Amino acid sequence: MAITAMAAAALTVGLLPSATSASAAAHRPYAPPIHQIALQGAVNVRDVGGYRTYDGEQVRYGVAYRADALNKATDTDVTTLARLGLREVVDFRVPLELQYDGPDRLPAGVAPTSRPVTDSGLYAAMLSAIGSKDPAVQDAMLGHGKAEALMRTEYQAFVSDPAARTRFGATLKDLASGRGPVLFHCTSGKDRTGWESYVLLRAVGVPAATAEQDYLASNGFRAAADAALRAGLKQSGVMQNPDLLIPLQEVRSDYLNAALSQLGTQYGDLYGYLTRGLGLSVRDLAGLRSRLVP
Questions:
Q1: pLDDT in tens, 101-138
Q2: What is the edge-to-edge ordering of all strands in the sheet holding 88-91?
Q3: CA distances (Å), 213 to each of 6, 180, 194, 220, 237, in order?
């Protein structure tokens, strides 16, 4: 059924849900939506497709991918990534992260697009705390709710920081333009990447609760690797209480809500954030919908 650009834009942000959406969704087979891209050097690489929209459609697979950093990708991983036919890989990491972790390893012909999004100094704070090797310093920096506060500050900055908005918006515009499959990532693939994925899913008409489930799924994908890091820090004597890192390693509804609260304060609603905050036009929103939803 044909849909005008304005109606498509309204539908994508949930302003015009179909009256028959629940019925349509109930009568369609619904396979588990998350398709993990299994790599040896990264643990949180996924296809953003598969989720149902308000009107019962399904987000296409093979258009948008989310990931953690690809600097540890093996030769086998690079071959796997090549099969995805990626046309662009957007890296949200800041220079300090690149300095410590290194650049992505990508298939031939795919160069990373650097769009650093602020982490509000979180990576530097974590390195400083761990590097001190002092339990008292680590507790003072990360304990007693301070790690959680750092995370909420980071999420608020995803919305309030002009450069972050520009770079998140540019990536959505790339997807809307139909230039081909796009992968975007940060270091752990959960915070900056998680916010961008949440916004993308909401923008094409996926309900908020479903988009939040995708966001929270990072905890499952990252659990083993994060636990191994904590165990290694304790065994080496670098951290007496590595559980101080758990609030930094996890995604939580509380963090997502910090960004959403900032969004409401600045822009009123998702449509305002997409248009006035990220600079997306009605044509861009309609393009996202047409590229990602049949």
A1: 999 999 999 989 999 999 999 999 999 999 999 999 99
A2: 35-36, 46-47, 64-67, 182-185, 88-91, 112-114
A3: 28, 26, 11, 11, 36
